Amino acid sequence: MKSVTIRYDLFSLTLAAILFVAGCSQLQDNLVAPPQRNQVLTVHPEGWATTASSSDFHGKYIRGQQWQMSSCWTCHGRNYAGGDSQVSCLTCHTKLGGPENCTTCHGSINPAPPRDLDGNTSTTIRTVGAHQSHIAGAGTTDGIRCSECHTVPATVYGPQGHALGYIDFPPPTVVFRDSLANTITNEPTTRDYDVSLPTTTPTPTWDSSALKCSNTYCHGDFKNGNNYSPAWTSVGTGGARCGTCHGDVTKQALADRALPETSTRGGTHPNSTQCSVCHVGIVDANLNIIDKAKHMNGKLNVFGDERDF
Predict the structure, then answer these.
(1) How much is the pLDDT for 172?
(2) What is the dihedral of CA 85, 86, 87, 89, to 10 degrees?
(3) pLDDT confidence of 300, banded at 50, 70, 90?
(4) Using CA atoms, how far apart are residues 226 and 220, in angstroms rounded to an integer?
(5) Cα end-to-end distance, the chain, whole Å
(6) How far are the Cα atoms of 146, 266, 271, 299 from residue 192, in angstroms, in the given order?
(7) How far is 276 from 304, CA to CA, in rounded Å?
(8) Neighbouring C-beta atoms of residue 58, cutoff 10 Å
(9) Which terminus of the chain, N or C, has less C-beta within 10 A?
(10) DSSP track, 236-265
């Protein structure tokens, strides 16, 4: 019985070999010639990496996949340095994280627009607006953190990351969870507590229809402030003038615009307009902010002392 089994196995192997050879001979004419040495094997469409105007541009494809780039790892490696394909994505995507850097999809010199996801750069568009006025800083501040208005993910694929729909996209949800917008002033425990004034506790809100934020420390919701509600898409129209947060924005003279809520206006600030006398090193005699890091930082900087107020 054992010898019969062996003969049967030999017969089966012989038959399989004959069929294999016959099959190969029938398909021989349809075989694709292997790539020659140094020949590039094309995997993606022609416009995949050439221009954003192409319908096949890889950025458009990735956006359609909710920014999911894990399929790229198979060939290019988890760090996009080349992987099995030996074709690196880091040749073009040179910033930290490669294609997963924030500026790949929005921003340029920093993660904030312009440009937005559609390439827009005009500040009159809601997805651009006053982003750079906040992040890069203007004449009054050295910059505001993205986390003041948004939940910022540590990585694309981490908790609350962009990919896989972890956050609303677009536009991102506006939330005021960081410290600056919520700075409380005139607390009873502070050195400059004024019993005649209420404690000011900001309740920041965002109006997605009017495109305005309200009740933020950043825009005057503080002790002797004006509690201004700036329009997000009205950059360069006076929204950062001294009088918007403190003083009187309707005044023409800068000294008048900068004057905070004095006793004549219902506040308790001294009536002096010589800001540089008390706020030494922060503002000069011409009311130019000379140390933006110490202006609008949640503290009172007076006579060289920085403290809660």
Answers:
(1) 65
(2) 100
(3) very high
(4) 5
(5) 101
(6) 30, 17, 17, 11
(7) 11
(8) 19
(9) N
(10) TSSTTSHHHHSS-TT-SSHHHHH---BGGG
- The amino acid occupying position 149 is C
In 3D space, the residue among 247, 269, 246, 279 whose CA is nearest the CA of residue 197 turns out to be: 269
Q: Please compute, for residue 13, the number of CA atoms within 13 A of its CA located in the half-sphere on the CB side.
A: 6
Q: How far apart are CA 283 and CA 171, in angstroms?
A: 37
Q: CA-based angle 117:120:124, to the nearest 5?
A: 120
- Contacts of residue 107, Cβ cutoff 8 Å, sequence gap at least 6: 113, 114, 115
What CA–CA distance (Å, rounded) separates 104 from 8?
A: 64
| pLDDT (0 to 100) of residue 76 | 94
Q: Note whether 45 and 53 are within 8 A (CB).
A: no
Residue 3 exposed, middle or buried by CB count within 10 Å (0-12, 13-18, 19+): exposed
DSSP state string for 157-170: TSTT-SGGGSS--S
In whole angstroms, give the CA distance from residue 180 to residue 176: 9
Element housing 22 (H / E): helix 2-27
Tell me the C-alpha distance between 308 and 216, whole Å. Answer: 17
**What is the distance, to the nearest Å, from the Cα of residue 134 to the centroid of all Cα atoms in its chain?**
12
| Span 180-231, pLDDT tens digits | 999 999 999 999 999 999 999 999 999 999 999 999 999 999 999 999 999 9
Q: What is the average pLDDT score of the chain?
A: 81
Among the residue ranges 49-53, 60-64, 258-262, 264-268, the one predicted with the least confidence is 49-53
Backbone torsions φ then ψ of 129, nearest 5 degrees = 45, -135
- Distance from C-alpha of 80 to C-alpha of 69, rounded to nearest angstrom: 10
Taking only the tens place, the pLDDT of each residue in 81-123 is 999 999 999 999 999 999 989 898 899 889 999 999 888 999 9
How far, in Å, CA of 284 to CA of 282, rounded? 7
